[in-house]
Amino acid sequence: MNVGDIQKILKADLICGNEDQLEYEVQTACGSDMMSDVLAFVKNQSVLLTGLNNPQVVRTAEMMDMRCIVFVRGKTPDSSVIELAKDHDIVILRTGLRMFTACGLLYSNGLRGGCEKE
Amino acid sequence: MSESINLKYIVPGDDFTRAGEASGAVKRKLKQLGFNSDVIRKVAIAMYEGEINMVIHAGGGEADVEILPDKIHIILADQGPGIPDISLAMKEGWSTAPDNVRSLGFGAGMGLPNIKKYSDELKIETELGKGTKLFITVNVSN
């Protein structure tokens, strides 16, 4: 699956990112509004789904080498978040879906959590 | 690289949006120096959680980073209130962070446990009313 597939599956808007970035391959994802949990439990994830809307979401993704952030529940990031994502080559998508539904759709399309039991 | 590289950062305590700038800069430096991605991620996450803690609990502080070929030392020093009970603070899920911090995505009681998890050595010096110093070491070759 690539970032473009995620955009299609979630019927998401592309908030920042270009054609090349939509080709990024992604294997695993994580959904959380608590960034410390993302930092604690996530291993080699490439996509972060969150309803939290502040620059620390991008910083967390940066530390974890993630390639794409999906804002769920129609959350629209402000310009500081978008600029930070551009600086770090991270794609931002926005979907009106809720977290549970968005994660479920990605899971049923083959994306996994990255931990052994997921 | 054969010699050590020393970096120093001021972590501002009044702007939550800037927390992580120092960790990001160190991450980029390590990448530029060619360290392996696992080491870089361990350093970045441990230091980032430390930075967040300094902003949330201590009104900011200072970060000193020493990069050696075989290990990376990070010292995070603040002049905050200190940690009353380190063993409690090391428990996953235990937090004294106020609700407004939780609404920002932190304060889940994972800060110090995460720092321990991603570091090879962690030493904490703390004195109530004076401040806290974290000594974090990440080994390059394991």
Judging by the overall fold, what is the CATH architecture of chain A?
3-Layer(aba) Sandwich
Which word captures the global form of chain B? globular
Head-to-tail CA distance between termini of chain B: 19 Å
Count every helix of chain A, treating DSSP H or I runs of 4 or more residues as helices: 6
> How would you name the CATH homologous superfamily of chain B?
Histidine kinase-like ATPase, C-terminal domain
Radius of gyration of chain A: 12 Å
Total number of distinct structural domains of chain A: 1
Please state the second-level CATH architecture of chain B.
2-Layer Sandwich
Query: For the largest beta sheet of chain B, what order do the strands appear in spatially?
Result: 1-2-3-5-4
How many domain regions of chain B? Answer: 1
Order of helices and strands of chain A: HEHEHEHEHEH
Query: Main β-sheet of chain A, in a few words?
Result: 5 strands, mixed
Helix content of chain A: 25-40%
Give the oligomeric state of the chains in this entry, treating copies of one chain as homo and distinct chains as hetero.
heterodimer
Q: What is the strand tally of chain B?
A: 5
The tally of helices of chain B reads: 5
- What is the general shape of chain A? globular
SSE order of chain B, as H and E? EHHEEHHHEE
| CATH topology assignment of chain A | Udp-n-acetylmuramoylalanyl-d-glutamate--2,6- Diaminopimelate Ligase, Chain: A, domain 1
Helix content of chain B: 25-40%
Relevant terms:
heterodimer, A: 118 residues, alpha/beta, Udp-n-acetylmuramoylalanyl-d-glutamate--2,6- Diaminopimelate Ligase, Chain: A, domain 1, five-stranded mixed β-sheet, 5 strands, 39% helix, globular, B: 142 residues, alpha+beta, five-stranded antiparallel β-sheet, 5 helices
Verbal overview:
The complex is a heterodimer of chains A (118) and B (142). With 118 residues, chain A is an alpha/beta fold. Chain A has one domain (3-108): HprK N-terminal domain-like (Udp-n-acetylmuramoylalanyl-d-glutamate--2,6- Diaminopimelate Ligase, Chain: A, domain 1). Chain A has helices at residues 3-9, 19-22, 35-41, 55-63, 79-87, 99-108; strands at 13-16, 29-31, 47-50, 68-71, 91-94. A five-stranded mixed sheet of chain A has the order 1-5-4-3-2, sandwiched between helices. Chain A is globular and about 35 Å long. Chain B contains five helices and five strands; from the N terminus they run βααββαααββ. Chain B has a five-stranded antiparallel sheet, with helices on one face. In chain B, α1 (21-33) packs antiparallel against α2 and α2 (37-58) packs antiparallel against α5 (111-118). Chain B starts with a strand and ends with a strand. Classes of the chains: A alpha/beta (118), B alpha+beta (142).
